[in-house]
Specification:
DNA-binding; Beta-Lactamase; Sig_transdc_resp-reg_C-effctor; five-stranded antiparallel β-sheet; PAS domain S-box-containing protein; Arc Repressor Mutant, subunit A; alpha+beta
């Protein structure tokens, strides 16, 4: 194994190369993070990391504009593991094809929750993802096509479940377990 391959495989974060949201290459760190064998991920759609096609499409839509403008995008998000558990990750993407941002992407995923796996509903994941990007309830509601009251209800349930008083504490709880 040459130095480039060694650096790729031994990186302390999961690294993935995709073409049109299909995994073409990944390192062992990414495979471990999502609970798959590396070989089993090749040729798979990124859809397998999300609970629904709707969520998969929303994630694409959220990042597409920044990728077109800045050629890069980052956020914090929940990703589904093979065992059905979820991992809270810091996500970064860089397009290699600015005219068609999803044609070729290099992405990194770094786990930011060291505790036991967290299980959130799709809606909870959407709300937490928006909070992780610094959005208000109104902004999350607008993005998801929901009422701000619906978002506030989800936030209240999350606050009660994780015994926190605000979004900052919620994100900290998800980050440090």
């Amino acid at each position: 194994m040459n130095w480039d391959q060694l650096a790729f495989e031994a990186a302390p974060v999961g690294i993935v190369m995709t073409e049109h949201r299909v995994i073409r290459a990944c390192n062992q760190g990414f495979a471990r993070l999502v609970g798959y064998e590396k070989e089993g991920l090749m040729g798979q759609s990124f859809r397998l990391l999300y609970d629904s096609t709707e969520e998969f499409d929303q994630v694409r839509d959220i990042g597409l504009k920044p990728l077109k403008q800045d050629h890069a995008y980052s956020d914090e998000r929940m990703v589904r593991r093979r065992d059905g558990g979820q991992v809270w990750c810091r996500f970064r993407a860089q397009t290699l094809t600015p005219d068609d941002p999803l044609a070729q992407l290099v992405m990194s995923f770094a786990a930011i929750h060291d505790g036991p796996p967290v299980s959130l509903t799709v809606r909870e994941r959407q709300v937490v993802g928006g909070l992780g990007r610094g959005l208000t309830s109104k902004e999350i509601a607008r993005e998801l096509g929901l009422s701000p009251r619906t978002i506030e209800d989800v936030r209240a349930r999350l606050h009660k479940r994780f015994q926190v008083k605000n979004a900052t504490e919620l994100l900290a709880r998800l980050t440090i377990g």
